[in-house]
Amino acid sequence: MTPTHLPGQVAIPEQTRHTSSPLDHFNTAPLEDVHHTLLTCLHSPRWAHRVADHRPYPDLESLLAASDEAAYDLTAADLAAALAEETLPELPDGTYSAAHTALRAADAAYEAKFGHVFVIYVGNLPPNEVLNHVLAGIRSRLTNDPEEERVVAAEELRRLAKGRLRDALRGAGNCATSPHPAAPGT
């Protein structure tokens, strides 16, 4: 429909204010950029491809559900490769050195038993509870047999991927929680 122009009036095109959300950017970004972002959330090319290939997502919940579904479909080899790229969680600033020593010792025992670094999602915890949660988790999970622990570690990787993906879409840039550039930490 053509607007009617009356003498002395200027037609001003309707202006719509469109702000792009992080999810909109994720849905429209080049595939290479999306893969890079996804690989910082979970170092699994198979997972990253599955999540990226199902774009666009109508909302964050749909993206997180797709993230879970793709993670459930990872093979044992995919999980082993993703676990190999993980690092221990960072302890909050001000954590005393004995805590770092205790965490390194517990992780060494864990790695000796299971062959990969301990992973645990700590995204929802207040900083003053992270150390106790991690140490309690690692000590508890050391009692698992290797198959039980593979299932638990896979679930923790799924939780980590969702938390990191949620952080990335909040505009946090890199969704890693560790300074390790090639393999973000837990």
Commentary on this structure:
It is a single chain. The protein has one domain (22-172): Oxo-4-hydroxy-4-carboxy-5-ureidoimidazoline decarboxylase (UraD-like, Orthogonal Bundle), CATH 1.10.3330.10. The termini are far apart. The model is unreliable at 172-186 (pLDDT under 50). It is mainly alpha-helical and 186 residues long. It has 8 helices and no strands. The radius of gyration is 22 Å and the shape is globular.
Quick take:
With 186 residues, the chain is mainly α. It is built from 8 helices and no strands.
| Name given to the CATH homologous superfamily | Oxo-4-hydroxy-4-carboxy-5-ureidoimidazoline decarboxylase
How many extended strands? 0
Described by the principal axes of the CA atoms, the overall outline is globular
**Biggest sheet architecture:** none
Radius of gyration: 22 Å
Number of helices: 8
Measured distance between first and last alpha carbons: 56 Å
Uncertain runs with pLDDT below 50, 5 residues or more? 172-186
CATH topology: UraD-like
Topology:
Elements: H1 22-28, H2 31-41, H3 45-53, H4 60-72, H5 76-84, H6 97-114, H7 127-141, H8 146-172
Throw out a few tags for this protein.
UraD-like; disordered C terminus; mainly alpha; single chain; 186 residues
